[in-house]
Amino acid sequence: MENEPACPAEGLLKMLSGKWKPQIFRLALDGPVRFNSLLRQIEGSNKQSVAVALKEMEEHGLLEKVVVKLKPLHIEYNLSEKGKSLISVFRQLESLI
Amino acid sequence: MENEPACPAEGLLKMLSGKWKPQIFRLALDGPVRFNSLLRQIEGSNKQSVAVALKEMEEHGLLEKVVVKLKPLHIEYNLSEKGKSLISVFRQLESLI
DNA sequence: TCAATTAGTCAGGAAAACATGACCATAATT
DNA sequence: AATTATGGTCATGTTTTCCTGACTAATTGA
Question: Hey, which end of chain A has fewer CB within 10 Å, N or C?
Fold first, then answer.
């Protein structure tokens, strides 16, 4: 049962927290990200956790999954509009001590 | 072993995430907070978890613990300078959809 | 045709976070 | 002297999150 947050910031904090989401979001700022590429870039990560993180970030509307019909056929995750609306906050978080 | 974050925003996100920290931080914006008062205000919370959250937020330098030598002798937690530097980011998070 | 790359899923276990209830110490009130 | 309020701690158990290794399946290049 998902109960709605008692505090408005809670939901957004949850969408970005967890062991791998901040790094995935960070990489998504620079352009489309891909499953295997994330696995290689994020040291210490693993298939399962990255798959779950991507799925949840997609469900929360931060990322959009796109099947790219080009050789090699592959899948991309792009920042959605909602995701983009978080860029400035994320940058601010990065700039703080 | 605490390994330093791979992404700068990670540390700050961690300091504010967890089941009760957002609500505690939110209440601390309005002024000093106190242990028993938080327990009463935050429905569903419990001693142990609030105690741990306060301790961690203090260790992370978001809150400062103050013993108030007034009757009744009590303890207050105030937003530190670092905590205050997060106010605008927190407000932005609150204002997003 | 075989191997590699793509992008995953699934079951099981370990680790971290959270909750519960008992207990404690000090100070103030009745 | 007993009770209440302060602000916790401790041991234990549950729940959630995370990790590991095996497996799948389509596409592509040699």
Answer: N
